[in-house]
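SEQUENCE-TO-STRUCTURE ENTRY
===========================

Backbone structure tokens: a row of integers, each naming the local backbone shape at its residue.

Task: work out the structure tokens from the sequence, keeping to the layout shown below.
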Amino acid sequence: MIRIFVPVAIVLAGCSTPIQRTYPHVDQSHLWTAMVATADSPEYGSEDLSKRWIVLENEVEINPSRGQIDVKRIIYRSYQLPRQKPERDSRDVLFSVYLLPTNPLTLEFINHNATFFPVRGKAEAQRFFDGVDQMLVPIID
């Protein structure tokens, strides 16, 4: 019984761990603007068909006084590989992103629905951070 409980406890604990990225040499207002734009305009395109999603719904709540953005999305994909049945999948994506008042500035990503699949939470965080980075490229260079 303990052998089964320990791995489950590790998986459940791992999903609630915040993922952070620091942004040295970036102005706070520019970083906040990039965060809001990334939340408002999600990008789920990919060369890999299995990672290409369509955003059906994207609800974004912005709280600038707390440096918090809450996102609720419904994403969908449908694809068929040769000699296989079509695969259709729909997911709810729920997360919050915080702009922490640290030096250097830090973004903290918390996924609210990756309980049994922490890898999905990491992929969503990476997608968000990549979107912010793309928004900041003209500013950083």
User: Anything to note?
Assistant: The first helix runs from residue 2 to 15. Confidence is low (pLDDT under 50) at residues 1-15. Strands lie at 19-23, 54-63, 68-79, 87-100, 105-111.
